[in-house]
Amino acid sequence: MSDEMSRRAFTGTAAAVAAGLALPGPTAHGERHRVDALLARMSVADKIAQLNMPVCLPEELLGDSPDPTGTPKDREAYVRGATVVGEKGDRLTLGPGGGFFGLVNQSLSGSVEVPHPLTPRQQAEQHNHLQRLARTTRLGVPLLQISEGTHGSLGPGSTVFPEGLALGATFDPELIGRVYRAVAREARAVGIHALSTIMAELNRDPRYGRGIWSFSEDPYLTGRIVAALVPAMQGDDLACEESVVVSLCTFPMEAPNTGGLETSPVEIGKRTFRQVHLEPWRAGFTEAGALMTEASEQTIDGLVVHGSPRYLTDLLRDELRFRGVVIGNDVRGLVREQVADTSRAAAGLALRAGVDVSLSWDEIYLDQLAAAVREGTVDEALLDRAVRRVLTLKERLGLFEDPYVDPDRAERVVNGPAHRRLALEAARSCLVLLKNEGELLPLSRDRVRTLALIGPNADDSLNLLGEYNAFPTLHPVPSIREALQELVGDDVRIVHVRGCAVTGTDTSGFAAARAAARQADVTVVVVGEQTKGGYFSPDRTDGELKDTASLDLTGVQEQLLRELHATGTPTVAVVVTGRALSLRWAAEHLPALLIAWLPGEAGGRALAQALFGDTEPTGRLPVTFPRRVGQLPMSYDQKRARAHADAYVDLPSSPLFEFGAGRGYSSFRYDRLRLTHARIGTDGTTRALVDITNTGPRAGTEVVQLYVTDNQASVSLPYIRLRGVRKVRVGPGERVTVAFDLSARRDLTLVDDRMRTVVEPGTFDIKVGSSSAHIHQRVTLTVT
């Protein structure tokens, strides 16, 4: 496999649980006894097979790779223990395999054509077949089946929910928990036990393509999302037919990296890492008990994470109390970065550091690990430690008792009516209206008789789905054009013209676009990014392996906006995107700007309903939108010197749109912010209450945001930090009281110069507003 293909483009995470962990479900002496008894009967070859769960790549992409996943025959041989690895003196016949990664992702999310994709029933039957083979082996150890789950299970036909920042834009952890509960149900129904690439990382560099999976730039919001989704997916009993193991990724971080480039190093201070980036991991591991993670492929401050006990043992296991299994997908990086001089040495470094399972089918964790154990350079007890974690997780998943699933249930559960309704609810909640000059939106069927629908994403349903999606969907996914036509019927005439592509320089469609706009009452132009086509599509502009040096609209899309604006027809810009973009011209000149993100299979319907006012956009920006890429790094929680900095010579220093920005179709007044206790101790609590009145003509949803400013501290802190969010529905003329609970130990801490997380006495400004830049009420809290 090429270096590029071996990167995380085709991988995710698998996991296991350390012995002695208090996991969901009962812990019994009998379970430990079974694991111990199995270990005692295992050869080194058996153990190593349990620690290799290879990514399943389509046969067309494997080339000369020895990876045993390309054909059903190869996979069956691996399950039975008939796979031979290594050369000459290091040849090794593996024991029965431990499991697979991504078996249901037949097309690599659209990278290759699949003439006969497996239905949910067939996926369940495929998994059952392999489990039967595994149970007939000498040890009878069941397989652990793992898949990606960024915003849905990847088996064809699965429900495709909004991706990454779209979910973050809902500002609704409870809704996101329900989304991932549905994802877990669909995955387990077809025989998947663990879902990976569930992001606890912050989105701090929009150039970075893999940031497409993450939820927000803010540690508090990301932490609350993670704390909601982990128990929703893992449930109270891992053996339940609706539960899967959650793999939070990628630990401890992969961004912000140098230049926003994939696998480039991270250079960040220890205090900043702890102050800013650690909170979501605490929420996911210490608070919620996630049972998997994947080791970052990056080097951080010169430490190669795959070989770092500081990160993978001291921080992860000792401090954060993680008791799951660490997945490695780049043990080869130890050799590449010249930390290890040989593959054999790399095997010892990674296993000692805490990497348990390898996904990349690399000699390092195959024949070279066996040779290192044979020579005595790697203690077999370290091998046992990792295998014990894998076997314990399989035990807790109930796989030794029953590794099979019901194909009939798979048909019923996958993309069932309740999940389709949830996908629509999530898509409605993620839309962010950033500008609505003259109340152009919502459109009225009475006043709009002809609508010009223009742009490369106006009639392209695949570009609404994002990456790592279930491909093919096996069920209808309406485009924006199709959804609009279905919604308005004969009431509104829709004139559709593509205008241009997402990429390229072809302007031949401009004339038709201008003509359509001139005859219309309003123009809706849908521009943005392209994520369809899988990893090798030359026109894909966002996602894994698609970092960018510019945040401007690609191709001639901005030129198309200019042409349509010049017609004089009121124009609404809808932006389909997986990252923050610099939309300077559109923000200045067009009357309405709506961010659709990557809204999933129901995105077309959600957008149609929002444009015509059947629903309202209720999302808010989970990341800062810069004016230009040259302002990066840029997040809302800047230190005071940056927050109050002078302008650039050629540009203001402020963002184009701030974190938390967005509006609906109503207006709100904030009154009477007060605290139940204006003075508390360093371990005290108080409650902030604020009155919200709907001053508009229709019911509306407001996203009330609470921020904290520490007025004096021993270290420089961000000027403002989010510490509370409430999403409330308020009728016209109605007033509601919104409450936030504040804990000094949770919400007012800092990391001091000795790396201690402490609460320092002093005064704190408690601020409530509609975004990080629009604060409507404030009050002072004293901590003694």
Automatic annotation (TrEMBL):
Its EC number is 3.2.1.21. PROSITE patterns: TAT. SUPFAM superfamilies: (Trans)glycosidases, Beta-D-glucan exohydrolase, C-terminal domain. It catalyses: Hydrolysis of terminal, non-reducing beta-D-glucosyl residues with release of beta-D-glucose. GO terms for molecular function: beta-glucosidase activity. It holds the Pfam family Glyco_hydro_3. Keywords: Glycosidase, Hydrolase, Signal. Catalyzes the hydrolysis of a non-reducing terminal alpha-L-arabinopyranosidic linkage in ginsenoside Rb2 (alpha-L-arabinopyranosyl-(1->6)-alpha-D-glucopyranosyl) to release alpha-D-glucopyranosyl (Rd). It is not able to hydrolyze alpha-L-arabinofuranosyl-(1->6)-alpha-D-glucopyranosyl (Rc). PANTHER family: LYSOSOMAL BETA GLUCOSIDASE, PERIPLASMIC BETA-GLUCOSIDASE-RELATED. This is Exo-alpha-(1->6)-L-arabinopyranosidase. It comes from Streptomyces alanosinicus. The lineage of its organism: Bacteria, Bacillati, Actinomycetota, Actinomycetes, Kitasatosporales.
